[in-house]
Amino acid sequence: MELKEYLKIFKDNFKLFAFVVVIVVLGTFAYFTFKPVSYSASLALNITRIGSQKETTDYRYDDFYRLQADEKFAETVVEWLKNPRTAADILAKANVDATHLSLRKLSNVFVAEKLSSQIVAVSFSASNERSAKKISDAVLEIISKNTEALNKNQNEVTWFEVVAQSPVIIQDKVSPTILLLASLAMGMFLGFWIVLIKHYLK
């Protein structure tokens, strides 16, 4: 088929094409308008040491290995936050009902990323600002409790401690311009194929 034939098809079915585009745009805006408000939170966990190695004239190996040890422990914290058990403990501590979540969803509640050898960034979503703050506090408490459990097995006083910064909590919003352009593109795509399918069946 030539281009002018396609244009004739869309000219004859312009009302159907326009109807599909309008429905998609209105449906998209309606969805985001009535969608429950949600918040995104970001929390930075700093890996520190409880103490330092005692003064000695001998070679202080701890100075050489400290950054490597900090980096490995930061990776441990990241893996803790990916664990369903840790996620369930944190949500329970924050009084958030997690009984409806599967193991896979529990594993994805928190997104943890090691930014450096001593900083782990944790991000998650919450239904409101208060809940986000409670979850942030629970993250620090549970991770600190896990760290303390490891500390009990250490003879050195140079083991780890986790300190959290104040969380950044922002309400999730979508730019109306981006939403309009995305819905228009999707509406035109669906309208294009619906018109062609109708023409083919006809």
Describe this structure in words.
The two termini are 16 Å apart. The chain is α+β, with helices and mostly antiparallel strands and 202 residues long. The chain is elongated, with a radius of gyration of 27 Å. The protein has 2 domains: 3-35 and 175-201, no CATH class; 39-171, 2-Layer Sandwich (Alpha-Beta Plaits). It has 7 helices and 5 strands, in the order ααβαααββαββα. It has helices at 3-12, 14-34, 61-82, 84-93, 103-107, 129-151, 176-201; strands spanning 39-49, 111-114, 119-126, 160-164, 168-171. A hairpin with a 4-residue loop joins strand 2 (111-114) and strand 3 (119-126). Residues 57-61 have low confidence and may be disordered.
Distance between the termini: 16 Å
The CATH architecture of the largest domain comes to 2-Layer Sandwich
CATH topology of the largest domain: Alpha-Beta Plaits
Average pLDDT works out at 85
Helical residue percent band: 55-70%
Largest sheet: 5 strands, antiparallel
Task: List the uncertain runs.
Answer: 57-61
Number of domains: 2
**What is the CATH class designation of the largest domain?**
Alpha Beta
Overall SS class: alpha+beta
- Tally of DSSP β-strands: 5
